[in-house]
Design brief:
Layout lengths: L20 H32 L1 H12 L1 H28 L6 H27 L3
Helix pairs in contact: 1-2, 1-3, 2-3, 3-4
């Protein structure tokens, strides 16, 4: 007979399971996938506006060059870089590498640090700071 006091789901972080970097990376990977899905629709809207030209292109440009638009583009680029790097991490796992606990933590921190560095580099280059 089933034990009624056991945890029902591994998604009960904090109640039954200790929060770890692997948990955070998994949650962020899912969130970044959702952000990229929404961003794909925004990209399609922008492409259609540019193809239409005139007022549609001007509205799209005004929207994406506003503070909110730039913030959305930053979040999209952050999600894109994170999802790419974490996907590469998963490819290494699929090949059978990196399953030891120290390696899991090391690769998780590497993905987090590289995400920040590469996203900053992309924006520095895009804004023409260098």
């Amino acid at each position: 007979m089933a034990n009624p006091n056991r945890p029902l789901s591994p998604f009960m972080l904090g109640q039954a399971y200790r929060f770890q970097i692997t948990s955070l990376m998994s949650i962020l990977h899912r969130i970044s996938g959702v952000v990229l899905s929404v961003g794909a629709f925004v990209l399609a809207w922008w492409l259609m506006a540019m193809a239409a030209g005139g007022d549609a292109a001007a509205r799209a440009h005004a929207c994406l060059s506003s503070v909110f638009g730039k913030l959305a583009l930053f979040v999209f680029s952050l999600a894109l870089v994170y999802h790419l790097l974490n996907g590469i991490r998963h490819l290494f796992w699929d090949a059978g590498f990196g399953f030891e606990i120290p390696e899991l933590y090391r690769s998780g921190y590497a993905v987090a640090i590289l995400t920040v560095v590469l996203t900053a580099a992309i924006w520095i280059f895009a804004l023409g700071v260098l």
